[in-house]
């Protein structure tokens, strides 16, 4: 029976929509999505969502096997509601372990970047504040939620032996599922202290906390391990936590939010109602909240003295790494026979606006170079919007994946090519044979990718293997066995 994998970096512009499909014969056995959002024209991503829903048939099966949310920025979550439209159930949901205070900061930061409120923003606001409640129609008793915690255990992820199985014995009745190891410090149900910290609680699904050193394994119903899912989460520091706590305290004081006695759902509705009524970041006093929080936070004092914030646009975006919760993911095939007996293709997606269509073009040179030298297709390392700019950021990341550093062929340059997220320090460590992609919009107000990032990629020799992903261009790659 033919077994196939297909992964797509969808052309959605300034955002990210990455998907995977596993088939036995013609039947889809496992569907996965890593982020689903954009700041670019909504039609660009809606077309891709429609194509994915059709190819996986999730509109009929009403099931998405795996949804991974790297972080809560609009351009990564804005279209999750569209993806799951029709009460599609998520079997496994994976997100970063993140405090309520940080999510409140992200909502207010999102508001500062928006021009007034409208109905299209309500989902994003609710989703950031309380994703479980917002997705309650997409979760049930069979759903499992894993919150990835980035506590440093002081050692890299251990490599495990690839299976030496040379043949598959699949049937169309086979089923696939993600399994995390169990045991002390590995996978544990969310405790009261964690619920208090995150305000994450679900009546519809089982919720677990997992250290990022522990791997998710894609297994068949007969116990065959097919693929590893390895995560990385860089924790926020104590100074940033202090800043987030101040933001919450000042926000609740300004709006006299009394939540005692309210149910969790009514608490969420109350906060969303207040935020929806804020149409001007400056006029509402929210800018002053950030300024005052910075003044009262010891870690920010010196920066404020150098550049008074009251006289300028909000500068807190430069002061704090607001996407520190972003998850990285490396997915890696485990079956050695896949590498020995595979055949496949790498395809460039070209998307045209007039007429509105999508053309798939074989990328032959890319195909030949990849297949002639590597046995790691189609393993990919996604970094999303994580910050990998300084030694203190890059060194733990490299150490975390050091046993896997030569096991991927495609690497995502972080944060759409932002100069605040990566530079020569990271780029010089990317394996020389790896291909890299930058996902960005044409045009975009953030001016991604930054020219300094491109210069660094040129200097490190990676520009010749650089793939642009925009609303007009993407790529997909398939492995078919045998």
Q: Summary?
A:
The protein has 482 residues and is α/β, with parallel strands linked by helices.
Number of helices: 18
Main beta-sheet strand count, sense and barrel state: 11 strands, mixed
Shape, principal axes of CA atoms:
globular
Overall mean pLDDT stands at 83
- Rounded Rg: 22 Å
Determine the N-to-C terminus distance. 8 Å
What topology, given as strand order, has the largest sheet?
A: 8-9-6-5-4-3-2-1-19-13-14
Task: Determine the strand fraction and express it as a percent band.
Answer: 25-35%
Structural class computed from helices and strand pairing? alpha/beta
Number of beta strands = 19
DSSP helix fraction: 25-40%
Low-confidence stretches are: 303-319, 365-374
Overall number of domains: 2
- What is the name of the CATH class of the largest domain? Alpha Beta
- The third-level CATH topology of the largest domain is Metallo-beta-lactamase, Chain A
CATH architecture of the largest domain: 4-Layer Sandwich
Any overview of this molecule?
The chain is α/β, with parallel strands linked by helices. It has two domains: 3-98 and 130-236 and 325-481, Metallo-beta-lactamase, Chain A (4-Layer Sandwich), CATH 3.60.15; 238-319, no CATH class. The protein contains 18 helices and 19 strands. The strands form two sheets. An eleven-stranded mixed sheet has the order 8-9-6-5-4-3-2-1-19-13-14, sandwiched between helices. It has an eight-stranded mixed sheet with strand order 7-10-11-12-15-16-17-18, with no helix packed on it. It starts with a strand and ends with a strand. Residues 303-319 and 365-374 have low confidence and may be disordered.
